Amino acid sequence: MGKLKLALYWAASCGGCDMAILELYEKILDLAAAADILFWPVAIDVKYKDVEAFPDKHIDVCLFNGAVRTSENEHMAHLLRSKSKILVAYGACSHLGGIPALANMTNKQGVFDCVYKYTASTDNPNNVQPKTTVKVDEGTLTLPEFYDTVKTLAQTVDVDYFIPGCSPVPEQTWAVLEHIIQGKPLPPKGAVLGATQKTVCDECKLEKEEKKITKFYRPFEIIPEPKKCLLEQGIICAGPATRGGCDARCIRANMPCRGCYGPPEGVMDQGAKFLSAIASVIDAKEPEEIDRIIKQIVDPIGTFYRFSLAHSLMKRTRMAEEKAPEETKQRNTVAARR
After folding, report:
1. Peptide linkage before 94 cis (omega within 30 of 0)
2. Are residues 53 and 138 in the same domain?
3. Which domain holds residue 333?
4. What is the Cα–Cα distance from 271 to 306, expressed in whole angstroms?
């Protein structure tokens, strides 16, 4: 058996997933010994045309990180799907849409207006905004098309497996790669790898009692007691609605879970599960009191769907052009102030 043929690609994401590969530390040498990396734009000089020249299914495994935000991302998703035997959605953005998918609260024009018009630091009197083509003396310059909607990889092409996390835990990444390198049998298609059937709450070692919340805090507003459940202290923690496998790393650093590993097995909508968990611990009976407590939750979409909006039942809001122009402008102005 020859060396494993491996590819890695970075679409709409922050680059943390590529750093997670480097965080394998000395295991990166084992990976280099066992695999030929055919394509990894951040690390080796390989062009798209080189990948296009590969025979179909030439790549054994492709780790595709990042959401599908542009026509370039979409093109590479289809290209790498055709060239790969196994296509893995690697990391929260590819798996669920991630932080980029919070842009689904508006559309392309809303994003452009926020960035190029409404931000306090923007000086753009001529309202110059990106175009797909522009002619200059040297010729025509092109940019990928920026789509209205951010999609997950599985909403774009057929995906074999998912490795969750923002970014995936290095130990779990290596466990998956080592399993493949050693030629061990793979789980059924569609499986979430490098994760558990439990929730982060199940993995958390903090002491839990009966939760009764009358006030919510953002993490910078309170110094939590070190051994007590963060949610019981009023710090919103996504542990009850998040798949385990990360060993509750954020919580061990005294920070709440944000939900990057996605919904537990059998949960269709992580945000709805999270919202249900929070609603069950609010200690109030009168509607006015309940409303007062709920209003302490800043940015509900960013809280309950921080990583999973594209993957959710909602997927996105109505397109901004369907809204009244003044409503669209107000939404974009609010977004620019955040």
Report:
1. no
2. no
3. 106-148+320-338
4. 9
Encode 27-55: b = buried (16+ Cβ within 10 Å), e = exposed: beeebeeebebbbbbeeeeeeeeebeebe
pLDDT for residue 209: 85
pLDDT in tens, 46-71: 999 999 999 999 999 999 999 999 99
With respect to residue 13, please indicate whether it lies within any of the assigned structural domains.
Answer: yes
Kindly state whether residues 166 and 63 are assigned to the same domain.
yes
* Biggest CA pair distance of the chain: 69
Q: Which residues of the chain have a pLDDT value below 70?
A: 1, 319-338
User: The pTM is what?
Assistant: 0.88
Domain count, the chain: 3
If one counts every other C-beta atom within 10 angstroms of the C-beta of residue 179, the result is 15
Does residue 9 contact residue 39 with C-beta atoms inside 8 Å?
yes
Dig out the tokens for 45 from the structure. 């000089």
Supply 111's token pair. Answer: 């994003």
Q: Give me the amino acid identity at 267.
A: V
